[in-house]
Design a protein that fits this description.
Chain lengths: 135, 139
């Protein structure tokens, strides 16, 4: 059964299940795609994933929240910390196409701090350009 | 839907925070709240419950968090309570600016609900967070 927003109630719990996928479109750039809910329970895993991406050589990060179903203050805190820690020569961008997720950035005024794009392609195009990843 | 209360009681552990969120979303969608209002209430209940999970009970002691919803035609009254240590009141006013080290929860709740009141339970034990959000959607 779907409601007017197109959400599947029967699958609601499954849809909120947290997981991450990392992509390296360039040697210096990691894209971490977030699926499901980011809250007190899952924020640490997001933190660890971003720490690992930077330790693996990424100087620019894109956090893709296209498939995120919820983000709370714990998630915002993780994103803020990583934006501040990142090498200023690199870039940190968020992909937030969904209005419900963008809302938390608006009410916290963090949309004034984070560069937010509507698509992953826009975010990657806006980063400082490094060499393409052949691998 | 009448104005009887709906209650959820869950152990004060982070892995259960999805439960109050799904409950609140399910109830207010049926009331006809807009998607933005639903998202606001999911955020408010999660922040209030996460505060209880993080601060109410000493490590290893544990306890419960109770969420009570009182829906009516154009609003939702939402109460989150615990039986833990209680918050130090009154809270600073104005609230602190967003910080990566926490402390964003209550300012976020204030930003998305119409009314917010925070108090201690009977005998000064525990914390009670009362929130009201009115719907401006056509219902």
């Amino acid at each position: 059964m779907r409601d007017s927003a197109g959400r599947d109630h029967a699958g609601a719990l499954h849809e909120t299940e947290f997981r991450l996928e990392e992509d390296r479109p360039r040697d210096d750039t990691a894209v971490v795609a977030v699926f499901g809910d980011v809250d007190l329970h899952s924020a640490e895993a997001l933190d660890e994933s971003l720490v690992a991406a930077v330790a693996g050589g990424a100087t620019s990060l894109v956090v893709d929240l296209s498939s995120a179903t919820f983000v709370d203050s714990q998630g915002l805190g993780v994103l803020l910390r990583h934006r501040r820690r990142l090498d200023p020569r690199g870039g940190f961008r968020l992909v937030v196409p969904r209005a419900e997720i963008r809302r938390v950035f608006e009410v916290s005024s963090l949309d004034q701090i984070f560069p937010i794009d509507a698509s992953r392609e826009d975010a990657l195009a806006s980063l400082p350009q490094g060499p393409p990843n052949d691998g | 839907m009448g104005d009887a209360a709906i209650r959820l009681c869950f152990p004060a552990r982070a892995e259960y925070l999805v439960l109050p969120r799904l409950l609140v979303a399910g109830v207010v969608r049926k009331l006809g709240f807009s998607p933005q209002e639903v998202a606001d209430l999911e955020l408010a209940v999660t922040e209030a419950c996460a505060n209880a999970v993080r601060h109410a009970y000493a490590d290893g002691v544990g306890g419960d968090v109770e969420v009570s919803l009182r829906p009516s035609a154009d609003r939702l009254e939402l109460v989150v309570s615990d039986a833990g240590a209680g918050m130090t009141l009154p809270l600073p006013d104005p609230p602190p600016a967003p910080s990566p080290d926490g402390g964003m929860g209550l300012p976020l709740i204030r930003a998305v609900v119409d009314d917010l009141a925070i108090g201690n339970g009977s005998g000064g034990c525990g914390t009670i967070v009362r929130m009201t959000k009115r719907s401006h959607a056509d219902v």
